[in-house]
Write a structure and sequence with these properties.
The chain is an alpha+beta fold and about 160 residues long. It has 2 domains: about 35 residues; about 130 residues, Heme iron utilization protein-like fold. It is about 30% helix and about 30% strand. A hairpin with a 4-residue loop joins strand 8 and strand 9.
């Protein structure tokens, strides 16, 4: 029943951002992604966390987004090479303002999402926990004209293919 409700809603609201669709329907954003009929959305298991984070650390400046019920926080920065300690994947670097601690064992699914956002080409890697909540998203960077960086787009495509192999 929930799947029918989601697919019906999505058929009438094709360009609705997944976060807003999830809130409106009272479901997880992961449920929304799983019900979008689009070849631009690929799900892989959380076991690819290490692979994705290592690769993303080499992409340069990206936009990291963390959301909760009260805020949407965005940061444009490169992702530091992380290291595992005390049950977390820790991000710290002198070169990047981004820092923090990710409970990597809670990451259950990772989505490669290529679909327009606000009318512009967009590509992201989105990490979801065991409860279906979004832990964070990594959006590819843009140039001064707002176009997705081609070098990052190529690396994103290669990484997605490796995770699907």
């Amino acid at each position: 029943m929930q799947t029918e409700k989601i697919t019906d809603y999505l058929s009438k609201n094709k360009n609705m951002p997944t976060l807003f669709a999830a809130r409106e329907l009272g479901v997880s954003e992961r449920d929304i992604l799983r019900n979008i009929d689009d070849d631009g959305i690929i799900e892989v298991g959380g076991s690819f966390f290490d692979t994705v984070m290592k690769e993303a650390a080499g992409w340069g400046a990206v936009t990291i987004i963390v959301t909760n019920d009260s805020a949407i926080i965005e940061m444009k920065a490169s992702i530091p090479v992380g290291q595992y300690a005390r049950g977390f994947f820790n991000l710290h670097s002198e070169e990047s303002p981004l820092g923090g601690h990710i409970s990597f064992e809670e990451i259950d699914s990772i989505f490669f999402v290529s679909r327009p956002f606000m009318g512009k080409e967009s590509h992201s890697v989105q990490f979801f926990d065991k409860n279906g909540k979004c832990a964070f998203k990594i959006y590819l960077g843009r140039d001064a004209c707002g176009k997705v960086l081609e070098c990052q787009k190529a690396e994103f495509g290669k990484l997605k293919k490796r995770c699907l192999a």
